[in-house]
Amino acid sequence: MIRRLAGLPPASGAEEVAPLVAPVDNAEERETGLPAGAAIPPALRKVVEPALSAPVEVLVDRGVAPSAEVLAELVPQLVASAGQEPARQTLRRVAELAAELLDGSLDARYYGIDCGTLRELAAGARESSASGKASREAFAQLCIHRAGAGGDTWSVAANGMVIEQAQILTTHNLATPVSRVGIEPRQGWEELARSCSARTCLIIRRLPGHPRPSRAVKDAAYAWRQLLFFLSRCETSARERTLSWLDEETDRHPAAVGRRLAPAVAGLRFVGGGGACGPVGAGGAGARRSQGWSVPGRRPARDPALEEPS
After folding, report:
1. Which of 29, 31, 7, 33 is nearest to 20 (CA)?
2. CB–CB of 173/95 below 8 Å?
3. How many CB atoms neighbour CB 4 within 10 A?
4. Are 24 and 36 spatial neighbours (Cβ–Cβ below 8 Å)?
């Protein structure tokens, strides 16, 4: 089996799995000593099936990949760990896809994303040298500027703020499966958005007494960013239903949950009505962006009773 897999191109996988799990042939009998005609055990067949290279719908249908919506969650990790494409090309493609998908969207208005700037970065990456150093530095400076971390001495929190902005600008690479693969969740974008809202509320509810409150705040912000992304993919009517439903969800939890989420919800409703949050995240009375990282004293939605370190 290892000999068969070794012949596959590492970047593309197998077009068909059948030859990989076919019975032992005469040549293999001479090379390995296994009897010709011996069947490949079912356990090994399951290990080999993920090597199949096929459209997403085929992979899901055969059970090789999970459902499309779960696959969308996995893509950022897969893309981040692949490391096969030069950094210049990665930045260009991610910036192009994000600008294409986010332009004029709810999440672009909520997070104050300038899609024109992203397109300029993509163009610069396309025209720069092979290393793409200049375009990467330009992207880093954009993230630093957006994080407002330029004047701070280095710290874990300040660095985290910059990384968070990079994740926002690149949609955690969720733009890739949506724009290029065409993933559509079976239950619909509205249901996914509501699920993320419920998850955010649950995380916030568990904050009091949490052993690692800062980590919980970051997880809540991550879930909220997914809510924005999924809600932006909804039709207008579905988006309006979800925005109206948010109060019902927060009312299911202790009052402290609604209080802590109130600035983020107000910001979401503000942009849902056509507004756009400013550079520091303010937009309308009491409206703020959800943030997972901050230097001490900068997280606007923090409850005074939770003075956890960032």
Report:
1. 7
2. no
3. 16
4. yes
Range of the domain at 203: 186-310
Contact present, 60 and 174 (Cβ < 8 Å)? no
Beta bridge partners of residue 14, listed in sequence order: 52
User: What would the pLDDT profile of 201-227 be if each residue is shown by its tens digit?
Assistant: 999 999 888 888 888 888 899 899 999
Q: Which helix or strand (DSSP H or E) is residue 68 part of? A: helix 68-82
Token digits for 228?
């924005």
d(CA 22, CA 150): 59
Bridge partners, residue 52, by sequence: 14
Q: Are residues 171 and 195 in the same domain?
A: no
The per-residue pLDDT for range 156-194, each reduced to its tens digit, is 778 888 888 888 888 887 887 888 777 888 889 999 999
Is 69 inside a domain boundary?
Answer: no
Tokens of 101: 């998908």
Query: What are the phi and psi torsion angles at 283 (to 5°)?
Result: -165, 95
> Going by C-beta distance under 8 Å and a sequence separation of 6 or more, which residues neighbour residue 61?
none
What is each CA distance from 89 to 122, 140, 181, 287, in whole angstroms? 9, 16, 18, 37
Tokens 């330029």 found at = 150
Same domain, 206 and 305: yes
Q: Which runs of consecutive H residues, i.e. helices, occur in 111-188?
A: 115-127, 133-147, 156-169, 175
User: What residues have CB less than 8 Å from 95, skipping those under 6 apart?
Assistant: 118, 119, 121, 122, 125, 139, 169, 170
Give me the amino acid identity at 136. Answer: R
